[in-house]
Amino acid sequence: MMDRKEHAQRRRLFARGFSKTNIKHNWEGVMREKIQLAVAKIAEEGKAGEPVDIMKLCTLMSSDISSHLLFGESFRTLEKGEVNEYIRVLTNALKGNGIGAELPWLRATGKWLPFQTTRELWRTNDLLADHASIAAEKGEALTDGDVVCEIISFFVAGTDTTAVSLTYLIWAVLKEPTLRDAIEEEVAQLDADYSDADIESKCPLLNAAIEESLRLCGAAPGALPRVVPAGGIDLGGFFLPQNSIVSTQAYSMHRDPELFEPPLEFLPERWLAESKNRVSDAGRAAMTPFGAGSRTCLGMHIAYMDLRPAAAEFFRRCPGSQRAPSTTEESMELENFFLIAPRAHRCEIMLGAEGLR
Prior knowledge:
This protein is mainly α. The chain has a single domain, classed as CATH 1.10.630.10. The strands form four sheets. Strands 1-9-6 form a three-stranded antiparallel β-sheet. Strands 2-5 form a two-stranded antiparallel ribbon. Strand 7 and strand 8 form a beta hairpin. Helix 9 crosses helix 12. The chain starts with a helix and ends in a 7-residue tail after the last strand. About 3% of the residues have low confidence. GO terms for molecular function: heme binding; iron ion binding; monooxygenase activity; oxidoreductase activity, acting on paired donors, with incorporation or reduction of molecular oxygen. Its cofactor is heme. It comes from Cercospora beticola (Sugarbeet leaf spot fungus).
């Protein structure tokens, strides 16, 4: 949606539903239920000393949360233990749209190429629309097409993004046993009926680890194209003509050595207020895992309310967990089709000797 006025109107329509207060009041219990089920599934699959693919379970959890929030009923993929056709199609859509954003001409022609793989990549929006077809009200309500488009967007934005962010967070922490132990000790102090607000206020190290994980492994670190408005604009000493396509992308900004030193190391302490090497105001301004300005991700509060409780529940109930031998730096190398994923498309861990707490 390029028209700023139309975008502002649409954003106002959804803003209240995505507010932090509304999410906490209406959906925290639902989200907590799915998170607890996901951690129980991790324990069940790993109880015999077998490796557990947490990326798969994080994806099932996120899809169940997103579907419940969008449709009022979960897809129940966690209970079934596998993704449904909707999510399979969605995965293809993410790849196709990611490539199409960089190569628009390929988006236009790809669906007509005589190869099943390429046709699936660019015809998935049609298939998703079939899944999400909903009747709209008359008057100023959204049209059928608008509703379908928004449902697709919200589901895409709320499923793989959260799943991959949580996967990389757990992986990064398990790489450092001392950090893992400190976070486990921190979350162990929470009451049994802890809330997201408790984690936010009482678990500074976990919150810092989440921020650092989003810095290095935010789900959408690539280019976010924008069109220069009429008349053009002077920016940083350069004139950008109207209708030029420009982009910012978090990947480079989050690795700027002038803002984050050392830029490639996972150092949660840089986000702690008492740290001598804490992130500067300029560094915080450059942190854009959810975008920036008027186009900031509407679902940011949902994402944090997924990440904080899910991470806390995992480190509370699965102490001493480790990376499985199959999970290496190479297998977790970023693969980017607009949204990132591990190159191996899995992240296996082994539960600690204590098992589920």
